[in-house]
Amino acid sequence: MADELVFYTNPMSRGRIARWMLEETGVPYTTELLTFGGSIKAPEYLAVNPMGKVPAILHGKTVVTECAAICAYLADTFADTGLAPRPEERGNYYRWMFFAAGPLEAAVTNHALGYHIPPDKSRMAGYGSYADVMDTLEKAVSASPYIAGNRFTAADVYVGSHVAWGLGFGTIEKRQAFADYVGRVTDRPAYKRAHAIDEEAMQAMQKSA
Prior knowledge:
Number of strands: 4
CATH class of the largest domain: Mainly Alpha
Radius of gyration: 17 Å
Helix content: 40-55%
Mean pLDDT: 96
Distance between the termini: 37 Å
Number of helices: 8
Strand content: 5-15%
Structural class: alpha+beta
Strand order of the largest sheet: 2-1-3-4
Shape: globular
Order of helices and strands: EHEHEEHHHHHH
CATH architecture of the largest domain: Up-down Bundle
CATH topology of the largest domain: Glutathione S-transferase Yfyf (Class Pi), Chain A, domain 2
Low-confidence stretches: none
């Protein structure tokens, strides 16, 4: 019997990235919905993720946190889904997934908080400047149909989620290349299923609050 896969999340969180990735794999999983300020800080969940943050997955005895790691783990573990990179795709796959997890998220978060790196301090920040990150991201999503090449991979779940959220919340500049990329990667049955599941869960949690 395959190891049980448990998904810990809240529909108003980055857990939506992991949900999309789980739906792309098509493997069965159970969902544990956690509440902010409540069960997310309970001892039972802190034993899974001491950070008290979501998402996390428990696969048998293996715990994986952090969205990029969850995407990569699921792609590698369920390799027959074709979501992991082929040898010729690995460079772009890892490059842009880690770019999104590091420079992109840091730059977008600081920008949203109104914190701007002084030009003379840009070398101290891993991302340099918000403008540099936006220009680099535009080149990345314009170089090929998908982030690693000509086919969809787990890296598109992760990078695509960041770009889609950024456009939706206004934290990423509205550029046509970004809109086109998001349109390509979200026009998938798994994305639509994941979105519907999380929307329903969010409405149910709001009603019970």
